[in-house]
Specification:
By secondary structure, this protein is mainly α. The chain has five helices and three strands. The protein is 54% helix and 10% strand.
């Protein structure tokens, strides 16, 4: 019940911010790049072990996802975006509704999985991205994330195990 109330409060806050001119709105000229930028802000906030910072970054990611001007997407981009938009939005909303790091990290696993699939399918990133893996995350089952840096900065353990993990793939950016 608490999670539902947090979700309702977050969605209402996002609606008020969006309609009152507060918050962030996606750039129509590079909508997917903006989603990438704000995902990376969430990831970087997790590495610092600051739940409040993660909450703010996730709220901004949610706003960006919700404001992607779909009419600006090409047919193929639109199809891929529609496949992942609701999943990305849901996890960003959950992360933005709490400051509890472990709960945020649980949703970050799902967010990262769908984010990676979307980025790979769209192939619109303007810089190289790195698909990284920590074998210790997720109760030893491991978990992935996407980074803008090849050096490991683990969002699942933050300061406790900052360099735990390895790069599994480089997603080349388009010039």
């Amino acid at each position: 019940m608490k999670n539902i109330l947090l979700m309702v409060a977050f969605v209402a806050t996002a609606f008020i911010q969006k309609t009152s001119g507060q918050g962030v709105v996606c750039n129509a000229e590079q909508p997917i790049q903006d989603v990438i930028t704000y995902y990376l802000r969430v990831k970087n906030s997790l590495t610092k072990d600051n739940g409040d910072s993660v909450r703010t970054a996730a709220k901004n990611l949610y706003s960006i996802i919700e404001s992607v001007p779909m009419e600006k997407l090409g047919t193929a981009e639109y199809k891929v975006w529609m496949q992942y938009q609701k999943k990305l939005s849901s996890d960003a909303a959950h992360m933005g509704g709490t400051s509890e790091l472990e709960h945020q990290r649980e949703h970050f696993m799902k967010l990262s999985d769908n984010f990676y699939k979307m980025v790979k399918a769209l192939n619109t990133n303007t810089t190289d991205l790195y698909y990284q893996f920590c074998p210790m995350a997720n109760d030893g089952k491991g978990a992935y994330w996407v980074s803008e840096k090849q050096a490991i900065a683990n969002p699942y353990f933050g300061k406790r195990m900052m360099t735990c993990g390895s790069t599994k793939e480089t997603i080349k950016g388009k010039p």
